[in-house]
Design goal:
heterodimer, A: alpha/beta, 8-stranded mixed beta sheet, 4-stranded antiparallel beta sheet, 11 helices, 12 strands, B: alpha/beta, MetI-like fold, Rossmann fold, elongated, binds adenosine-5'-triphosphate, binds iron/sulfur cluster, binds magnesium ion
């Protein structure tokens, strides 16, 4: 995997949102993404897992430059996205697409799904109106719907059907890189399997690269070559999917795996669920961010941020002071 | 969509259109001259020649009303429209770009609001001289900032919606996004603003005309007529009546028109409110069926069939569904999207959208007092009494179940006060207790938070707190963990399992599409496929030895194995208006035989506890 030319390369990516408590209150900065290095190679699928608010979606949007980073750079196909003019960047957008998490909010309720799927093709001048109409039919079929659905409005579809429409919209511009933000979490298993298979096929056939943000570890494991586990804005563990899921080294990854519902394992056999919520990203704990929920935390953990260090020769890295002791 | 609302639009549209048409046609109508004075006939009451009477100078009132409409309508409509165009542009730009643009547009427009309206009008007047044109300019300047503020607030809310970001991600230009995506979605409140502005402009027009700042006498306007009639109110009260009637009538018609327009523009149709079908049957049939001997079940749904009138004929998204929940039992309803899980849940709650009709079926519910009755035959008031009290519901998307403008504590307290007669302070105290019980950290303080200040998991906890506020006996949870992360899902599942034990006998219907979650939370499972229950039974048995090919396929498509490709069920779910004959699963079923496509397989009992809707279930073992 290391020899694949990099399509997307992020270095030291940091995003701080400014938020104010009240008019005269003190400013609290929300540290959404902190010092993340991440790369996605051609045709590579990288999974990003973590809890809500840990910065996965922000990371995805930073990689597409839908958000401007506070620090760090994103290079797409060698070009620094921040350095590009807005017109150049808009042209580059054809090559990178986003699939959203929320099937209810991601479609404009007032326009037919056909028009919305065709948007990308028309904006970038990839097709005439007639060609776009035809392509829309094909795309709808590809995602398991009927071409006749093109004339309907989003509210006429169930949640799962809407997400398939969103996938069709993202595929319309034939992108190289797709950030899929929880794209299958709202889908039914049989459709989820079809969409996961579809994404896998597209990756092979079109040389598509994928940043796959998901909380479903089973799907990530199935679809992705590499995985990055995020906690409170930082990547705490990363490595080849198989190795990371077989032998997770970080206590958070271990907890995540234990919390994943499984058909094979009946209820009440796992460990008790990880207690507590994510600490506020505007006031993260000192040292290791996970220490407030970590069953292995000790005083060292509060002192300094554990660096993401090599754990195995296959690119498996982990950010935990006590990883070796726990293992 | 367009023709659905046409009837609602027709009446107000015809009235407003009629008023405008009459005003436009004034010169060709067989009316006299509105300014011809006949002092000898001053203040004569209505007669055959002068239907509405004559005013203080003996002018024909009907003629003046019609001619006056021209000035009044022109001034108010034009002012409202011009103000609208400028205000909306300012608001859209300010809300979309924020920063400097916001200061240049919305904030500077708001400065206008600091001037007293009359002062502003005087200012414009001294610059341009009196007349209807001046009045339009003055009123436009006066009203534009209000539009700007409404448009600004709506744009602010819309700009972060996924479908707006999606346009940005597609590389669309800002202008295109604003015109095609943001504007249509912020239009409804602006339409309401338009009708309010026209009404208010008509009133201001009369005031300013009276001061000599607007329409110049003897030209008629409704405002001038009202002012003129005031001085002779004692002798000729009807003179006041006519222009007032014209003014209010027009304003009311306009409000109705804008209201109807807003509803027609909303593609989701009317809000979920009372079910007219239920209201009808509820009144025709007995109010509540007589109490029966209490049964072990908490809820039993029998043969529920729902119908939606669609363009190509009626569709039945739920057919002959029977389910039961015992106290303390969790029934998982699992199935693909569109299988009718949500509609079944909504039917039990009496919250079906108006387009959905109940064709047949009974929903027997046993309440706290041990009485059993059919929820389908309850009237709205009785159903409202149960909802949120005996039966509560938790929806999939916590962020849209909470009202963004109220503190979560208030929303939980509100749920309590809707059914219990307690003081606001007591309700708040209980709300904090509930939020603490569902595991919201630092509940006393976080109760003051607004929904957007909480994470998704915390929002769902708040929703659950509101749902369990009155100790419901049946909780219907529609995909309550679908939008959550795994560790939070594990917490919420543990929370819900715990609630069931604590509350001693709360039954739960847990709608989900995730089989692994079913195995974690449920005692029994009902598998649905396009509107029918195809298999039902205890979770362990159904998952260990499924007796329906669809259940088997579902279990196999779970991505837990190490196979290179996931095993997906071939084909797609057939559309409801074109269901296959016989077994609905036959086109996708690996076990289908000729007989499967000729006769509907009935729901067969396998043993005391299980049932399946497959004619070949014996061979699946
Ligand atoms: N308001 C409506 N107008 C028209 N059709 C509707 C409406 N509501 C639901 N339907 C249709 O009824 C069928 C069942 O819908 P329902 O929402 O109950 O499915 P579901 O099993 O809950 O699906 P999901 O898992 O996607 O939430 C679907 O085909 C849907 O398109
Ligand atoms: S560094 Fe300490 S607190 Fe952080 S994960 Fe490792 S053991 Fe836990
Ligand atoms: S009845 Fe026939 S087609 Fe239907 S599920 Fe059974 S075997 Fe398959
Ligand atoms: Mg549903």
């Amino acid at each position: 995997m290391t020899t694949v030319p990099l399509l997307v390369e992020a270095k030291g990516l940091t995003k701080t949102f400014r938020a104010r408590q009240s008019l005269f209150g003190r400013r609290r900065d929300i540290l959404a993404v902190r010092d993340v290095d991440l790369s996605v190679g051609g045709q590579e699928a990288v999974g990003v897992v973590g809890e809500s608010g840990c910065g996965k979606s922000t990371l995805g949007r930073l990689l597409l430059h839908l958000l401007a980073p506070t620090a760090g750079t994103v290079r797409f196909d060698g070009q620094d996205l921040a350095a590009l003019g807005s017109d150049q960047r808009r042209r580059l957008r054809r090559r990178m697409q986003l699939i959203f998490q929320d099937p209810f909010g991601s479609l404009d309720p007032r326009r037919t799904v056909g028009n919305q799927i065709a948007d990308g093709m028309l904006i970038h001048g990839l097709a005439t109106d007639a060609q776009a109409r035809e392509a829309v039919g094909d795309l709808l079929e590809q995602v398991g719907l009927e071409p006749t659905h093109a004339t309907r409005l989003p509210h006429e579809f169930s949640g799962g059907q809407r997400q398939r429409i969103a996938v069709a919209r993202a595929l319309a511009t034939q992108p190289d890189f797709i950030v899929a933000d929880e794209p299958v979490s709202a889908l039914d298993v049989s459709i989820q399997a079809q969409v996961v298979n579809l994404l896998a096929d597209l990756r092979q056939r079109l040389g598509l690269s994928l940043l796959f943000i998901s909380h479903d570890l089973h799907v990530v494991r199935h679809l992705c070559d590499r995985v990055a586990v995020m906690y409170l804005g930082r990547v705490v563990e990363t490595g080849p999917a198989a190795a990371l899921f077989e032998a997770p080294a970080h206590p958070y990854t271990q907890a995540l795996l234990a919390a994943t519902p499984s058909l094979a394992r009946r209820r009440d056999t796992g460990r008790p669920p990880l207690s507590g919520d994510l600490p506020s990203p505007s006031d993260p704990p000192s040292g290791c961010s996970f220490r407030t929920r970590c069953p292995h935390a000790n005083s060292d953990c509060a002192a300094a941020v554990p660096p993401l260090e090599p754990w195995a020769s296959d690119g498996h890295r982990v950010a935990c002071w006590r990883a070796a002791e726990i293992a | 969509m367009a023709w659905r609302g046409t009837r609602r639009l027709a009446v107000p549209f015809l009235v407003v259109g009629g008023i405008i048409a009459v005003a436009l046609a004034a010169p060709v109508l067989p009316l006299g001259d509105p300014v011809t004075i006949d002092v000898s006939a001053r203040l004569t009451p209505p007669s055959a020649a002068h239907w509405l009477g004559q005013d203080e100078y003996g002018r024909d009132v009907l003629t003046r009303i019609v001619w006056g409409a021209r000035a009044s309508l022109a001034v108010s409509f034009l002012a409202a429209a011009i103000a609208g165009v400028f205000g909306i542009i300012l608001g859209l730009l300010g809300g979309y770009f924020r920063g400097v643009v916001e200061i240049l547009t919305v904030r500077s427009a708001e400065a206008v609001l600091c001037f007293p309206p009359l002062l502003l009008a005087l200012l414009v007047l001294t610059l341009l001289g009196p007349g209807a044109g001046t009045l339009i300019v003055a009123l436009s300047i006066l009203y534009a900032p209000t539009y700007a503020r409404v448009a600004y607030a709506e744009t602010l809310a819309a700009r972060n919606l996924d479908y707006v970001v999606a346009q940005e991600a597609l590389g669309a230009r800002s202008g295109r996004i604003l015109a095609r995506t943001v504007l249509p979605n912020v239009a409804p409140p602006l339409l309401v603003q338009f009708s309010l502005t026209v009404a208010s402009a008509m009133v201001l027009e009369s005031g300013l005309s009276f001061l000599g700042l607007g329409v110049v006498p003897p030209e008629p306007s409704w405002g001038l007529m009202i002012r003129g009639a005031r001085s002779t109110m004692d002798q000729a009260p009807w003179l006041l009546l006519w222009p007032c009637l014209a003014l209010t009538g027009t304003i009311v018609a306009l409000n109705l028109l804008c209201d109807a327009l807003r509803d027609v523009l909303d593609p989701r149709g009317r809000n979920v409110t009372a079910n007219p079908f239920r209201a009808l049957t509820g009144n025709l049939l007995s109010r509540t069926s007589p109490p029966q001997v209490s049964k072990p079940e908490l809820l039993r749904v029998d043969g529920l069939t729902l119908e939606i009138a669609a363009e190509g004929g009626a569709i039945r998204p739920v057919r002959d569904v029977s389910l039961s929940v015992a106290p303390g039992e969790t029934l998982a309803v699992v199935g693909e999207s569109g299988s009718g899980k949500t509609l079944t849940g909504l039917a039990v709650m009496g919250l079906l959208p108006p387009v959905v009709e109940i064709v047949s079926g009974e929903v027997h519910y046993t309440d706290r007092t041990g009485h059993t009755y059919d929820l389908m035959r309850l009237d709205d008031a009785a159903m409202r009494g149960l909802r949120g009290d005996e039966i509560a519901m938790v929806f999939q998307d916590p962020s849209s179940s909470l009202n963004p403008v109220h503190r979560v504590g208030d929303q939980v307290a509100e749920a309590i006060r809707a059914h219990r007669n307690v003081s606001a302070a007591e309700a708040w105290r209980q709300a904090v207790g509930l939020l603490d019980q569902v595991g919201l950290p630092d509940a006393a303080r976080r109760a003051r938070a607004f929904p957007h200040e909480l994470s998704g998991g915390q929002q769902q906890r708040a929703v659950i707190a509101a749902a369990i506020a009155n100790g419901p006996r049946l909780l219907i949870a529609d995909e309550p963990t679908t939008a959550l992360d795994v560790t939070i899902q594990a917490q919420i599942l543990a929370l819900m399992a715990g609630l069931k034990h604590q509350s001693g006998g709360m039954g739960m219907i847990f709608v989900t599409h995730n089989l692994a979650v079913v195995s974690e939370i449920a005692d029994r499972v009902a598998v649905m496929y396009i509107g029918e229950v195809v298999e039902e039974g205890p979770v362990d048995q159904v998952f260990a030895t499924p007796r329906h090919p669809y259940t088997i396929a579902l279990i196999e498509s779970v991505p837990e194995g190490d196979d290179d490709r996931l095993s997906a069920i071939p084909g797609t779910v057939p559309p409801l208006h074109d269901l296959p004959p016989g077994c609905r699963f036959a086109p996708r079923c690996g076990f289908a035989e000729a007989a499967c496509t000729t006769a509907d397989p009935p729901l067969e009992r396998i043993d005391g506890k299980r049932s399946t809707r497959c004619r070949r279930w014996r061979e699946l073992a």
